[in-house]
Specification:
alpha+beta; seven-stranded mixed beta sheet; about 35% helix; globular
Length: about 160
């Protein structure tokens, strides 16, 4: 009887964790939402006009970005539509790169989109993140998979 009292909560918790893990580890589509491209254009325009090289904000800290005040509502709507929780956007000269971290519950992995005009990502680029993870022999991974649109990648890491 004592063992049952211990096992029942354990099984319930394990079942819940497996549910969240499997329900949030579905394949990401190969097409980027056009709203993500719109967000890149907004940030690139503002950073160029106001000579700002870096934006680094979350949904909750967006209100503290004075340069984005005029576009606050539109950016908030885009972040919500994309389910993005954090944006890191760098503009240096004519080059810009954005990382858009997806707001999801995952056990041990992060998922995010990268916009990179020169096609460079810090992560290893693979044809399929799913296949790369299955064949991964290392403790940690950092992978990016090219999306159908130019300059866009979906990435994942477990570090």
């Amino acid at each position: 009887m004592k063992l049952i009292k211990i096992l029942v909560p354990f099984v319930i918790v394990l079942t819940g964790l497996l549910y969240f893990y499997t329900s949030n580890n579905t394949a990401i589509e190969k097409d980027i939402n056009p709203k993500a491209e719109k967000l890149v254009k907004i940030l690139a325009k503002i950073s160029g006009e106001q000579k700002i090289e870096l934006f680094n904000f979350t949904k909750t800290t967006l209100k503290n970005e004075a340069a984005l005040t005029n576009n606050f509502d539109e950016i908030t709507q885009i972040l919500n539509a994309l389910d993005v929780k954090r944006v890191i956007f760098l503009k240096s000269g004519d080059y810009f790169k954005g990382t858009f971290i997806i707001d999801s519950f995952n056990l041990g992995s992060s998922w995010y989109f990268v916009y990179s005009e020169d096609g460079y990502t810090e992560e290893e680029q693979v044809d399929s993140i799913e296949d790369a993870i299955k064949n991964n022999k290392q403790e940690y991974y950092h992978y990016c998979e090219k999306l159908n649109q130019n300059y866009w990648f979906v990435c994942s890491n477990n570090a």
